[in-house]
Amino acid sequence: MKTTNFDRYLAEQLRDPKFAARFERAGEAWDVALQIAALREQAGLSQKELARRLKTSQQQISRLESPDYEGHSLANLRRVAEVLHARVRVVFEREVKDTGKRAAEAAAQYRVNRTSIKRS
């Protein structure tokens, strides 16, 4: 794949540890926003309808779906998940020394499929 000017610029910027940390945090907020919006759309709900069901404002739903917003509380995410028939899962991962990979390239260290766990 051909490297673009933006790819080269981003690679240069990511050499700065402060920028790299901000970039990774932004990616985490982006992931949460995209997941909420996707679940809402899969449920066939508008922001206004989801807000009505959560007894909040459409503006609050818009805020939750904004990649710039970092004020998500676990309690609020659980309320949203319940209405959207989903669950919230928080995963803590150890920080790894710089391997040259960035947030968008890092693979999850583990995945557990709860339906495949045998219970006795």
User: Per DSSP, what share of the residues sits in E-state strands of 2 or more residues?
Assistant: under 5%
Taking Cα atoms only, what radius of gyration do you get, to the nearest Å? Answer: 18 Å
| Helicity, as a percent range | 40-55%
CATH topology: 434 Repressor (Amino-terminal Domain)
Q: Number of helix segments? A: 5
What can be said about the biggest beta sheet?
A: none
CATH class group: Mainly Alpha
The arrangement of helices and strands along the chain is HHHHH
Distance between the termini: 49 Å
CATH architecture call: Orthogonal Bundle
Number of strands: 0
Structurally, the number of domains stands at: 1
CATH superfamily: lambda repressor-like DNA-binding domains
